[in-house]
Design a protein that fits this description.
Distance between the termini: 17 Å
Strand content: under 5%
Largest sheet: none
Number of strands: 0
Radius of gyration: 13 Å
Shape: globular
Number of domains: 1
């Protein structure tokens, strides 16, 4: 599913999670590349930390948390980018294809 992500910054963070990077490394690497004033990039960093910590087994929870910090325009952008992936993930969970 990560291969379908268009945004290179988000893709890199997710790949680090999949590859088993520790939280500190993910945070350090992404923060070096992020613009501190870019809200989206900082939310991506937080989300990747959440994935790495496995705080949210359900990506819908993460998506809603991210959206709560964004403008309406950016919420729509995030929905377009992540909404389909979240739906596919939830369907895979329902079919028992995802094991925690």
């Amino acid at each position: 599913m990560v291969e379908e992500v268009c945004d290179p910054f988000l893709k890199k963070g997710l790949m680090m999670c999949v590859d088993g990077y520790d939280i500190e490394s993910i945070n350090m690497i992404l923060k070096k590349e992020a613009d501190p004033s870019d809200i989206y990039q900082n939310i991506v960093i937080e989300g990747c930390e959440m994935v790495a910590k496995q705080f949210a087994a359900n990506p819908t929870v993460m998506l809603e948390k991210f959206k709560s910090r964004l403008s309406t325009k950016d919420q729509s952008k995030l929905d377009r980018m992540a909404g389909k992936l979240v739906e596919e993930y939830e369907e895979m969970c329902e079919r028992g294809e995802v094991v925690f």
